[in-house]
């Protein structure tokens, strides 16, 4: 039975209850049987001096307790969002410049807006600024599509550890030899271990997987000859190849064919897209949200869509637009996968109101009221610099 995260009765950290749209509502045994509230859980701390976790570089990282101050540098946002769901986001004292300028991340995790910008693991860390924050731990997500990038991050980690700061390294899900969402959920699990929220982390992962399971159940038995062909267009001018985590979502969960058969971010031209001529076009908001209406109207946004109106997917209006974080391997992934699947196999999801399910997602997972959920959906439509 999969849980979702909702506010506690006291307004403290979230407590957990199962997803309304998949299973009957039940409360956590803690709440129903023991009468404890979220604040009780948040204040509990393991009776040890240190915690040791194994990160994605297979290093044992020892972190002194209590872990009260964290610097978070990441792409997917899983660390900051997990801390928000655990009710400990106020422990984020520093973030990378990517999160600092991203309106959607700041909306979901308000503590990001208050945290200090310490630069970027990609374009340069401000070590002096970071050190003044006196963090107990740094979470660093490594993008290592090349050996040079891996070496760059290795130097950064070594320098941080020379400052006496433990560093937990996560590898971006697309950078594993076989991209799989299980590596993304390890972000949640390890963050739970660091802060002593192992049970809550397991519940978050179960909630995500249960929602993804709804799509998987409806698409798992599609015969090969009926599988739709798809291009995953990532703004402004790339497609996601089979080395990407997005391709894993499409082929292994939605059960469709990715026409871009190699690479991660693969530059694509109008001529190449016309030659591929997919059944379905999925628009991913990498550098900004690209609404279906803009494509159908033939706007010049990344590509000149006026030159692409003969694409089968455009002629038949088989398109989907995924928000700024929905296309990533993160907490919002189930919504992105549902939108993708509903566009690829609409007849299998005609009983679901996808827009309504998106609002319910923010209500049930983040504990928002309807007005805040509407704002969260709108925040996903970040236009970027296209």
- Please tally the helical runs, counting DSSP H or I stretches of 4 or more residues: 17
Question: What is the rounded Rg?
Answer: 21 Å
Helicity range? 40-55%
Shape summary = globular
Q: Distance between termini? A: 42 Å
The total beta strand count reads 19
Strand content: 15-25%
CATH class of the largest domain: Alpha Beta
Q: By CATH's scheme, which homologous superfamily of the largest domain applies?
A: Nitrogenase molybdenum iron protein domain
**Unreliable stretches:** 1-45
Major sheet: size, sense and barrel closure?
6 strands, mixed
The CATH architecture of the largest domain can be given as 3-Layer(aba) Sandwich
- Mean of pLDDT: 87
What does this protein structure show overall?
The protein has helices spanning 29-34, 38-43, 78-86, 97-100, 103-108, 110-114, 127-132, 147-162, 181-195, 198-219, 245-254, 270-276, 292-296, 312-315, 333-344, 354-365, 370-379; strands at 3-6, 15-18, 50-54, 60-64, 70-73, 92-95, 116-117, 119-120, 124-125, 137-142, 167-171, 229-234, 238-240, 257-258, 265-267, 280-284, 300-301, 303-304, 319-322. The two termini are 42 Å apart. Mean pLDDT is 87; it is low at 1-45. It is of the alpha/beta class and 386 residues long. The strands form six sheets. Strands 12, 13, 14, 15, 16 and 19 form a six-stranded mixed beta sheet that branches. A five-stranded parallel beta sheet has the order 7-6-5-10-11, with helices on both faces. The protein has a two-stranded antiparallel sheet with strand order 1-2. β5 (70-73), α3 and β6 form a beta-alpha-beta unit. The chain folds into three domains: 3-43, no CATH class; 50-196, Nitrogenase molybdenum iron protein domain (Rossmann fold), CATH 3.40.50; 222-379, 3-Layer(aba) Sandwich (Rossmann fold), CATH 3.40.50.
